[in-house]
Amino acid sequence: MIKKIVLMGNPNVGKSVVFSRLTGANVISSNYPGTTVDFSKGKMRFEGKTIEIVDAPGTYSLEPSNKAEEVASEMFKNADLVINVIDATNLERNLYLSLELLERNIPVIIALNLWDETKHLGIHIDEKKMEKLLGVPCVPIVALTGEGIKDLVSSIKKAKSPKKIKPTSEEARWIEIGQIIKKVERIEHKHHSIRDRIEDLTINPITGVPIAIGIIFSAFWIVRLIGESLIEHVLDPLFNTFYLRLMERLSDILGPGFIHTLLIGEYGVEIEFIESLGVLTTGLYVPIAVVLPYIIAFYFMLSVLEDTGYLPRLATLVDNVFHKLGMHGHGIVPMFLGLGCNVPGALATRTLETRKQRFISATLLAISIPCMAQLAMVFGILGKYGIYYLGIVFLTLGILYIILGLIMNKFVKGESPEIFLEIPPYRRPSLKATLKKTWMRVRWFLKEAIPFLFLGVAIINILYAVGFLQWLGTVLAPVMQGLFGLPGETSTALVTGFLRKDIAVGMLLTIEGITPIQLTIAATMLTIYFPCVATFAVLIRELGIKDMIKSAAIMITTAFLVGIIMKIILLGV
Amino acid sequence: MHRTKPLVHLQPKKKARIISIHGGHQFCRRMCVMNLRVGQIIEVVSKQPFMGPLTISVGNCKMTIGRGMAHKIHVEEI
Q1: Cβ–Cβ pairs < 8 A, chains A and B
Q2: How far, in Å, are A120, A457, A537, A551 from residue A541 at the CA level?
């Protein structure tokens, strides 16, 4: 009886797409497709029974070489059936894992994904012959369009453990693959296409680096364009007319008192969505009208970059810089993901091989990479004063990333192995898949961030009501003023920042008489000093408690030093 | 007959056959899993400056490897 099916395959073969095809909408766990490092679980109905489906991280072999691959080979151990998703355009390399799976005496189905692509490339595969040679069902599919998925599901019944393949050595596997390929695959002579030309241009350093800079700049420009348009044309009109009136009515009904302060903000003061600090005003407005538009825009762009296959090329181009920071080119992936939200960024550090690389990448992520929620708010409060102040924030963070990386590379013990990364061919991203991926990530944001914001705003109000924040502000005021030249109330924002960085940035605005330069220093320190509680929890899990304490010590020390240095340089005292 | 040399000294756009792979068991196994084996024909696609990595192609598949690794793979130009 089949209860659990595990999807396995090399990285970048579209396993996650197959997964969402099989499970439909019933995705339970978190999912960061394309860079799946955590597994996803889902359910599928099959002949009246419910089968659990697990999407394992991509792996080249059952003998793992990094943490993500370890997760994959762990998953494999309690599977009743394995669906081995392979990239049909790259049969030879993919068959290595297939043979390893077939040697383990477990029922396997091989899904030949990207079947449509093989036709464009002039690759002919005889899947019937392959079925005979391997002794397991081989089903051509196009996961993106759903073609062949029905056949894949109906072949579950036919799946059986192969008998013909005995465990062998690495070399023997390749010889066997060579023989299989000879019998089942025929490749037409390929002309040098425009795609090959683009592939060359983007990986050649002379042309590749300017192209990379152009791509990154236009990506962020598009993110801003989409984000701003959504705010200006959709969300602000909605909040400023309809929702504002609703809140004013509610305010009249509630009257003064703690409930009013908690839900809406101070009574008798005009409602300001960012500054009022009520659960229903700020707690709802910040995630939905300020942050969400940029989250949507950012994840859309990121999905496009992932699906086209550009990221591994970028990793190649930046490898020499990242290697000096104690990582390798792949370190750019956690960094990019972290710009959306630090949590998936922290999870993606798993794709790095050693403890040293993971430690450096996680610490730099927590210190120097603001998440989109925070970025949106920083743009919101500093943007109006001009590019100069924003420039200071980002320049400081950028310099920190490099300097801390160089220092940690020197002092953190351990190996920093070199890059070893597959470069997939460019693919035209499908709009449907990109939108679906964007939606999955946005939904994840809504599910995780909004409860935290509500909770954050509620806790702050309670702490205000009992006078704790006022007390803390007074106690820390000498430190804030003396060391960093900031108003004492800034300390309450820093405390809040542990819950949600975006409300914390918003709170800076409520401080009376704060100057743009002070805002700049406070916003920078808010990024550096500590990750938010969600990221913190993930980092403890990923690094272990001992390394996390070390990492946190680096974060706090850095925040102090940077605050002092910025005060000296910017305030001149 | 050509002399053998480390892959790292092969110029971009040149093809070569792998003659030997030096290094520990773990390294050789990792190379092997990615189909980098003795006898395979490989081509250097690009080299990044400042001790950056090499991008090579084997069969239908491209990959980026570090210079240190490319030192351990000896090839014969063809």
Answers
A1: 98
A2: 44, 26, 7, 13
